[in-house]
Amino acid sequence: GAVVSQHPSRVICKSGTSVKIECRSLDFQATTMFWYRQFPKQSLMLMATSNEGSKATYEQGVEKDKFLINHASLTLSTLTVTSAHPEDSSFYICSARSLAGFRTDTQYFGPGTRLTVL
Amino acid sequence: GDSVTQMEGPVTLSEEAFLTINCTYTATGYPSLFWYVQYPGEGLQLLLKATKADDKGSNKGFEATYRKETTSFHLEKGSVQVSDSAVYFCALSAPVSNFGNEKLTFGTGTRLTIIP
Questions:
Q1: Helix runs in B26-77, H state only
Q2: What is the DSSP annotation of A39-89?
Q3: In degrees rounded to 5, what are phi and psi of residue B83?
Q4: Do residue A109 and residue B36 have CB atoms under 8 angstroms apart?
Q5: How far apart are the C-alpha atoms of A92 and A99, rounded to whole Å?
């Protein structure tokens, strides 16, 4: 149980185009989803926290107009990288937290999406 | 702000060796502490966790004890296997709002390779 999927697993795009990444909780409902970015040989950096039906909360230094997050249902959140540039190339990872349990602090992670911007 | 410092890798051990990966943290209040593991080509998986001082988390032969006095949560395993080869992340979670949206702060990860 507690499986999170991401699609696509890998994407290559041209500079200036937009890319959408989907994050789905397959067998549970998630009120909260998180989006992370991981640079090579570095830790995961939280980009934003997404609550179903409300606006995402972005971390300091993350451009909300650049990284659009939509959490339209309890099983789906999307991250759209708008007007992508080579410096946006990275590994993007989502996680989801189950509704089960009050203030549960276990996040379940997706396998990640490798974005390469040419 | 909150931070996690963990042992830099890579770490290479022979099968059946004893493993320790050090992790220390800085946080206000009383965070929950976690170890996540990332196997090649897969997402992060929760390995174990501890929510209060002196708690010991354990799973698959791995253990870590929440030491408040030394602000540490070192990961140990008595006899590692080739299948334990992965990247291990130490993390902490501290509440940031009344909505319970606890944020995870990760260490940089330690790549472990076990050779037969």
A1: none
A2: -TTS-EEEEEEEETTS--EEPTT--TTTEEEEEEETTEEEEEE-S--GGG-
A3: -70, -10
A4: yes
A5: 23
Any B CB within 8 A of A49 CB: yes
Q: Chain B residues contacting A, CB < 8 Å?
A: 4, 32, 36, 41-46, 49, 51, 89, 93, 95, 99-109
For residue B73 the two structure tokens come to 């949560």
- Beta strand pairing call for B86-94 and B75-77: unpaired
Closest listed residue to residue A107, CA positions, set A6, A12, A14, A35: A35
pLDDT: is B102 or A90 the higher one? A90
pLDDT tens string A29-65: 888 899 999 887 778 899 999 888 888 999 999 999 9
To test the contact with chain B by mutation, choose from A105, A106, A113 the residue with the greatest count of B C-beta atoms within 10 A, namely A105
From B107's Cα to the closest Cα of chain A, the distance in A is 6
- Closest residue on chain A to B35 (Cα): A106
